[in-house]
Amino acid sequence: MLRDSLARRTGRDGNAAGARDQYAALVPLYERAVGAEHPDTLAARGYLAHWTRQAGDPAAARDQYAALLPTIKRVLGAEHPDVLITRAELAYLTGDAGDAAFARDQLATLLPEYERGMGADCPDMLILRDSLARMTGKAGDAAGARDQYAAMLPLYERVFGAEHPNTLAARGYLAYWTREAGDPAAARDQFTALLPVRERVLGAEHPDVLITRAELASSIGDAGDPAAARDQLIALLPIRERVLGPEHQYTLATLGNIAYWKAKAGDPAAARDQMIAQLPVHERLFGAEHPDTLDTRHNIAYWTGDAGDPAAARDQLAALLPTHERVFGAEHLHTLRLRESLAHMTGEAGDAAGARDRMAVLLPGFERLLGAEHPDTLETRRQLARWAETAGRDPEERG
User: Fold this and answer.
1) Which end of the chain is more exposed for a tag (fewer CB within 10 A), N or C?
2) What is the model's pLDDT at position 358?
3) Cα separation of 392 and 397, whole Å?
């Protein structure tokens, strides 16, 4: 059908919302013309869910895939490629909605079925493996995600070519998870090598190029130069505002990262004030319990302590903890990092024994999620030793 081809082309040309709207209009036409369970109708429903996701509404896309799956499975058979793709999309979107461990396990279960039905090197198999790697990382195993991308990269190069956008995206994820696994210097070098290739292939202001610039800046900061990270992000901000808009999620993330590196470069009060001004925008756009909003509140509290009021920081972090535990889970990395901040501010507010005890409870969680030698684990161990030593001193010595 001509309109179906036009809708797909609209999406491929970058207008995901337009493709979504065209498929929303097409589905009832397919139902009337060939029937609600005809394969062409089911394919149109799949494309509607796909472009709904690409247009920025993963929750709606997840619900569309969930409604589609029983019908497409009954009509086409459990091992039909379209059924496997629908299951993979549903699993990934479930992870995007907050249950990364469930998504990881579902995607891992799908791997042998994909390989049997489609072959080890087909593009859809690579998409599945990419989704599995991302959900592995989101579930807390950054080293596992890094290793999966390292293994995938030669497959991307063979299937798509070394400079295909999909291959360049895989290189970006490899660099990202390399940093998250504790090696920011290696990630910095990987992003530095990737940036000029992406600029040449995609154009200097393509969104993926801007993402690479932002991740390079963060890696530079994590590798020890917070002032350079801050300055690179300040230079990036007006481009993102112009290309994406001032309230786009990535533009707001850039503002948050500028504040973060301001604090790391020695000005936590300016960072705190910047994010206090941004918090209502995050709450309005994303909701009070969105991960980005919760990260903003975490940073505001922490920088309140760094700017000289650790007791207020401690109280803000303690108030935030139940929400983190409900939204992310008690053992999620975001929750552990909040608890580490709470332990630190407990000590800075004068309760060294309380900080020591909180750090002692935290350490096994970091070891389990990140490994014994990850920088975050090592820092938790250092903080435990610090507060244990402080708590063991005489009150006069502490003063």
Assistant:
1) C
2) 96
3) 10
- Domain-embedded: residue 287: yes
Q: Is the residue at 346 inside a domain?
A: yes
> Which tens digits make up the pLDDT trace of 127-184?
899 999 999 998 888 999 999 999 999 999 999 999 999 999 999 999 999 999 999 9
* The pLDDT of residue 8: 86
Classify 161 as helix, strand or coil: coil
Q: What is the pLDDT of residues 253-297, one digit of tens each?
A: 999 999 999 999 999 999 999 999 999 999 999 899 988 899 999
CATH number at residue 348: 1.25.40.10
**pLDDT (average), residues 116-127:** 81
**CA atoms of 124 and 81, how far apart (whole Å):** 9
Exposure letters 150-159 (e unless 16+ CB within 10 A, then b): eebbebbeeb
* pLDDT attached to residue 156: 93
C-beta of residue 315 within 8 angstroms of C-beta of residue 348: no
| Prediction pTM value | 0.80
Domain with 289 in it: 281-392
Determine the residue type at 66.
A
Query: Which positions ≥6 away from 214 have C-beta within 8 Å?
Result: 233, 236, 250, 253, 254, 257
Phi, psi of 388 (to 5 degrees): -65, -40
How far apart CA 215 and CA 233 sit, in angstroms, is 10
What's the length of the chain? Answer: 399
How many whole angstroms separate alpha carbon 358 and alpha carbon 46?
48
Whether residue 31 is contained in a domain is answered as: no
pLDDT (mean) for 215-232: 98
Q: Residue 290 falls within a domain, yes or no?
A: yes
